Amino acid sequence: MSSFDFACTIAMGSIIASTLLTKSVSLIEGVFGLLSIYTLQGITAYLRQFKVFKSLVDNNPLLLMDGENILWDNMKKAKVTEDDLKAKLREANVIKISQVKAVIFETTGDIAVLHNDQENMSVDSWILEGVNRS
């Protein structure tokens, strides 16, 4: 879920609550508001297939660890603490820092941990395509 999707979800909840709980918003107005948000979200979903529009609406994934190296500036940008990072590494069953190939702060706000026991194995460049390194 992108930040735009999240905002639309909050807006829909607000419209539904206002329609059901207040007398100042009629059912017709509530339905019109919901249809407007659904239409806006549908148009945005369609336009996301174009790179120019996608760059305006969506965030780019951010590299937090490159192998064993923690990218502290990127951690600050993502507002991820060292404790958050350690928790995600434990969640991914990483037992040695040398297993880590990459840690990525995804556009959804989740943290992906790419790891493997084989030290000579690297991550395919296609998987890291579009990930900001700085």
Descriptive report:
There is one protein chain. With 134 residues, the protein is α+β, with helices and mostly antiparallel strands. The chain folds into two domains: 55 residues; 54 residues, bsu07140 like domains (CRO Repressor, 2-Layer Sandwich), CATH 3.30.240. The protein has five helices and four strands. Strands 2-1-3-4 form a four-stranded antiparallel sheet. Strand 3 and strand 4 form a beta hairpin. Helix 1 packs antiparallel against helix 2. It is elongated and about 65 Å long. The two termini are 23 Å apart. The model has no long low-confidence stretch (mean pLDDT 91).
Structure, briefly:
The protein is built from 5 helices and 4 strands; from the N terminus they run αααββααββ. The chain is of the alpha+beta class and 134 residues long. The protein folds into 2 domains: 3-57; 62-115, CRO Repressor (2-Layer Sandwich).
Write the layout of secondary structure elements.
Blueprint: H1 3-21, H2 27-47, H3 51-57, E1 62-66, E2 69-70, H4 72-78, H5 82-91, E3 100-105, E4 111-115
Helix pairs in contact: 1-2
Quaternary organisation: single chain
String of helices and strands: HHHEEHHEE
User: Helix proportion of residues, in percent?
Assistant: 40-55%
Discrete helix count: 5
**Biggest sheet layout:** 4 strands, antiparallel
State the strand order across the main sheet. Answer: 2-1-3-4
**Shape from CA axes?**
elongated
Main structural class: alpha+beta
Mean pLDDT: 91
| Uncertain runs | none
Strands, count? 4
Q: What is the beta-strand fraction?
A: 5-15%
Number of domain modules: 2
What separation lies between the terminal Cα atoms? 23 Å
Radius of gyration: 20 Å
